[in-house]
Design brief:
6-stranded mixed sheet, alpha/beta, phosphopantetheine binding, 14-stranded mixed sheet, Chloramphenicol Acetyltransferase, elongated, 30 helices, disordered N terminus, Rossmann fold, 1042 residues
């Protein structure tokens, strides 16, 4: 408890002290976070007794060591006691072989002790006698009354007093330390001055439009401050080279050190606009500089750091920024946080801190030289880099890192990298671009390339038809596909596909051609895929459930030589510009039955088939408003066999559920990883695949062993309803911690990653455990692939540092169908691979973990993933702009509730136009698949950032239709359903006709709704029933009359 202030003399806190007080109240659970300290190493015939006496005299001058704190009526106050409270402990370690280590351990333990601001004392000191001529004088105080300047000031005053007591002549006349009232008066004067207002205006202008401060940590923002310290001495030779480099650049050593650290942070974060924190003393008067106390301030140093800048140019720019900062340095960082509206948000105005503690003159106790050495510093929000010069040729580099953001190894890595980086700057001339030095040394480079290179499966590249035929010969009687009540063996499927392939060849189909498949999920669809591959062509799956305009575009763009249909799809596909072959046509069936089912050879095809020929085409969202076709070669599809066995454990006893749409590339993995390893592919009707109880029953009743699906689908399933023996592979979007928590522990959960341009999966994790939830890995490259994490200049990013993921290897796509320019832009030369090899630029930001796994972080463009579907926001915006009456449009993915991602669109009406969101959604649904139809909100204007870009963070939550009551009040069942709508969709409604899907519901939120309905009403409506009765009244009738 904080005591009430008594009658002892009290004073208000200065602005600096208030900042520490409130920070401690908010984020110092240990009571030691704001301890500051160091020690003086004194060598020579120094007297311990005299030094003890000098300490006692010193404390009489240091008014701060008489202070404690209390809670007054107007807030915290400091109470000035009568006696100094800075006790000195003497520890004799003479004769001990580990004397120095024992002293340092004592200091480290003391730095971690809780400091009670109310009871005190706020200071501690110890004198360690290591030998007759070797002493360590340690002091520790709380940051609310002591800063770095004060430690140096008090140390020098102690040396003066000792020198006087020892009878030596001081180098300069001694000046006693001044009282704290000087700092308090200066603080009052500044707060009432016009200068403070000018300083405020300067900082608000300087930070206008600044991006979020950088961080070097891959982890989320922490709660309390903390620190772990790693450090090293630069050594006289290295220090001399750095001093000389600063001189060549025409700046002071501190300015050069800050410049180099700025470039280091900018390079690691791939930023050109960097805001670091820079501590300053906050002392502007001669009198104030002689007062021990707390005035330190950490202010934002915003620097434009263009990769083309030379070291000389950037050093001069940094020098100018520092000088401007110092002119306005009295303004408190805490006040700036308040001015910017950041208080209580856990946000800062600056990123990593850089500090240079200069050297003024030698410190000596009589004739005995002394050096000031660091111990653990004040807790930091993120990470700080301190260059501490203790003598004319000695510099210590100290890294203090928040342990909630950085492991000790990561702190060590930053220390090592910054040293290497500094060494490279020494070798750079003043006119060398700052982008020239490499952040990765030779040893780390070799490690990164090793992590990123999977074992080569060996042998020649195979053809999918050959691999399938071998499997059919090995397990002819095994069931290849189950389709509800129907199944087919490997031998039967092999014979069937051989006949269809011969029909295609007879129609002129061969390697390099594309055959479109518009068939429902069935054995026939899979057989058609295999037949096309056997003929040597590439198949293009067209989901019959897609809107007609979307199918027409894909068919026109791909220009297939044939389109295979059946009786259910023949008529809907009549509008497509392609030659149709109806597999249900009696004449076609008759001809197929008469063709040979013998295995096809190269001589049977129109031309020889090679591993480099296209195997399939999958269309993905395109930023220009139209989808683009990705062409994947035979070797990429064949490589899935290695992945199936090595990573997922698929084999002859596996039963894999074919879950996703055939137009989604995960279907390629479903089919060929199963059929090339002898397992059984379980095919189901789309209605059985709706997330929820239907899917749970399907998995259980069909004894499914493996399922590959997006994590957002798995998140709505109930682990208790599915056997623990089922292996789930999540892919298509970032896995969430909740999924890991729910589906690990006695279950096998694997996280797979890969763009369509890299044959479905290119990296795969090991089996996930609960400990992976904090940073879910996407694993390492699969056999046949290479993975690189690169910066903007295509250089390897260090381990733990974000960079863009590039994929290379046998499974790489050939490119984009009919788009050579886009292909050249995304598939670039591989500087690390064999001559002539390429790599694919994924656009995904990732990092390497210390154990060599990749972790997905974000996108570096406007591509997003929703429910496993890849979506270009540019395509959504283009679609919205094409709608009548829309003048401007923006799209984004929102997560207004944890784990729930929704595609949102915002439209600005043209002059005189009246836009109805429901009507706009309906128009879009006629043109594109439902995953591309956003919740639409009409706004007066789109908010912009200071740079003129759309400020998506400022866009409002989707304003979905919220109908008011129309007609009779809701009955009890309707009210409960309306409450469930509101809770799941965040849409309050009292309208019996409110439509779940028009209010923004989708298949995943529908699954949650049905689960809640079952719990509330004790009945089990199906997804099909919800589609039939999607309104409040309709669903209420269903559950009331089951």
């Amino acid at each position: 408890m904080i005591r009430q202030s008594g009658e002892a003399p009290s004073r208000p806190l200065t602005a600096s002290q208030l900042g520490v007080w409130f920070a401690g109240e908010a984020a110092d659970p240990t009571g030691s976070t704001f301890n500051v300290g160091d020690y003086l190493e004194i060598k020579g015939p120094v007297s311990a007794d005299t030094l003890t006496l000098a300490h006692d005299r010193l404390t009489a001058e240091v008014e701060a060591c008489r202070v404690t704190f209390a809670e007054g009526e107007e807030g915290p106050v400091q109470i000035l006691g009568d006696e100094p409270r800075w006790p000195l402990t003497r520890v004799d370690l003479r004769g001990r072989p580990d004397a120095r280590a024992a002293a340092l351990a004592w200091m480290e333990a003391d730095m971690g002790r809780r400091t009670d601001l109310v009871a005190g004392p706020l200071f501690c000191a110890a004198l360690f006698v290591l030998a007759e001529d070797h002493l360590l004088y340690y002091r520790r105080g709380h940051h609310i009354v002591l800063d770095g300047w004060s430690l140096d000031l008090v140390g020098r005053r102690l040396a003066e007093i000792y020198t006087e007591l020892a009878g030596d002549t001081p180098q300069a006349p001694a000046v006693p330390l001044a009282p704290m009232e000087i700092l308090q008066e200066e603080d009052r004067t500044y707060h009432a001055s016009a200068r403070r207002s000018r300083d405020r205006d300067f900082w608000l202008g300087r930070l206008a439009g600044a991006p979020e401060p950088p961080t070097l940590s891959p982890r989320p923002a922490p709660g309390p401050r903390g620190t772990q310290r790693v450090k090293t001495d630069l050594g006289p030779a290295r220090a001399a080279r750095l001093f000389a480099t600063a001189e060549r650049l025409g700046v002071a050593w501190p300015e050069f050190a800050i410049t180099a650290t700025t470039v280091y942070v900018a390079r690691l974060t791939d930023r050109t606009d960097v805001t670091l924190g820079m501590p300053i003393s906050g002392r502007t008067s001669k009198a104030g500089r002689n007062v021990p106390g707390m005035t330190a301030n950490i202010l934002p140093l915003r620097v434009t750091c263009d990769p083309a800048d030379t070291w000389a140019e950037l050093a001069r720019r940094v020098r100018s920024e520092i000088r401007q900062m110092l002119l306005h340095g009295r303004y408190r960082a805490e006040d700036l946080l308040r001015d910017l509206g950041l208080v209580g948000q856990g946000r800062q105005v600056s990123g990593p801190v850089v500090n240079v503690l200069g050297f003024e003159s030698d410190l000596s106790f009589g004739s005995c030289p002394a050096l000031r050495r660091s111990v653990q510093g004040v807790g930091v929000d993120d990470i700080s880099f301190t260059f501490r010069q203790s003598s004319a040729d000695e510099v210590e580099l100290i890294v203090d890192a928040n342990p909630r953001l950085y492991t000790e190894q990561e702190a060590q890595d930053h220390l090592r990298r910054l040293l290497d980086f500094l060494d490279q700057t020494v070798e750079s001339g003043p006119d060398t671009p700052v982008s020239r030095p490499d952040l990765v040394g030779a040893k780390e480079r070799a490690l990164l390339l090793d992590w990123g290179t999977a074992a080569d499966p060996g042998g020649p590249h195979h053809l999918v038809p050959d691999l399938f035929h071998r499997q059919a010969e090995a397990t002819p009687d095994a069931v290849a596909i189950e389709d509800r009540a129907t199944s087919v063996t490997y031998a039967g499927l092999d014979a069937q596909t051989n006949r269809i392939a011969r029909l295609l060849i007879a129609r002129g189909v061969g390697p390099g051609d594309v055959v479109a498949l518009a068939l429902p999920r069935s054995i026939r669809l899979v057989a058609a895929m295999a037949a096309v591959l056997k003929a040597g062509a590439a198949y293009l799956p067209l989901d019959p459930g897609y809107p007609a305009p979307r199918l027409a575009y894909m068919a026109a763009d791909a220009r297939p030589v044939l389109l295979l249909v059946d009786e259910t799809t023949a008529k809907p596909m009549e509008a497509l510009d392609a030659i149709r072959v109806n597999l249900d046509d009696p004449s076609v069936r008759g001809r197929i039955s008469r063709l040979s089912d013998a295995p096809l050879t190269q001589q049977d095809r129109t031309r020889p088939l090679t591993p480099g020929h296209p195997a399939y085409v999958i269309y993905t969202s395109g930023s220009t408003g139209s989808p683009k076709g990705v062409v994947v070669p035979q070797r990429g599809a064949a490589n899935l066999r290695n992945l199936a066995t090595d990573c997922f454990g698929l084999g002859a006893h596996s039963r894999l559920l074919q879950f996703v749409s055939p137009s989604f590339d995960m279907s390629v993995a479903d089919v060929w990883m199963t059929l090339l390893t002898g397992g059984t592919l379980v095919v189901a009707d789309k209605s059985q695949l709706q997330p929820g109880p239907e899917l749970e029953r399907l998995i259980t009743e069909n004894a499914v062993s493996h399922v590959m699906l997006p994590p957002s689908v798995l998140q709505v399933l109930d682990p208790a309803q599915i056997p623990a023996s089922v292996t789930f592979v999540v892919a298509g979007e970032a896995c969430t911690p909740q999924v890991v928590q729910d589906w690990t522990g006695g279950r096998r959960l694997i996280d797979a990653y890969g763009p369509t341009e890299a044959s479905v999966y290119s990296t795969v994790s090991d089996e996930l455990t609960l400990s992976d939830a904090a940073a879910i890995p996407i694993g390492r490259p699969v056999p046949g692939f290479r993975a690189y994490v690169l910066d903007a200049r295509l250089r390897l990013a260090p381990a733990g540092v974000p960079g863009e993921l590039y994929i290379a290897g046998a499974g790489l796509a050939l490119g984009y169908l009919g788009r050579p320019g886009l292909t050249a832009a995304r598939f670039v030369p591989d500087p690390f691979g064999p001559p002539g090899s390429r790599m694919y630029r994924t656009g995904d930001l990732v990092r390497w973990t210390p154990d060599g796994n990749l972790v997905f972080l974000n996108r570096n463009d406007d591509q997003v993933k929703v429910r496993g579907f890849r979506i270009e926001l540019g395509e959504v915006e283009t679609l919205l702009l094409r709608l009548p009456g829309v003048a401007r449009a923006a799209a984004m993915v929102r997560e207004d509730r944890p784990g729930e991602h929704r595609l949102a669109g915002y439209v600005v009406p043209a002059d005189g136009a009246a836009l109805d969101p429901a009507e706009l959604r309906a128009r879009l649904a006629e043109q594109v698949p439902d995953h591309l139809v956003p919740l639409v909100t009409v706004v007066d204007q789109l908010p912009l950032t200071p740079s003129g870009k759309i400020d998506r963070a400022a866009l409002p939550a989707p304003a979905v239709a919220t109908a008011t009551a129309s007609g009779a009040p809701l009955n009890p069942a309707e009210q409960r359903i309306a409450d469930l709508f509101a809770d799941i969709l965040g849409v309050p409604t009292q309208d019996a006709d409110a439509h779940f899907f028009e209010l923004g519901g989708d298949s995943l939120s529908a699954a949650r709704l049905l689960g809640r309905v079952r719990a509330a009403f004790g009945v089990k409506p199906t997804m099909r029933e919800l589609f039939a009765a999607p309104t409040v009244a309709g669903l209420a009738r269903r559950v009331s009359n089951p």
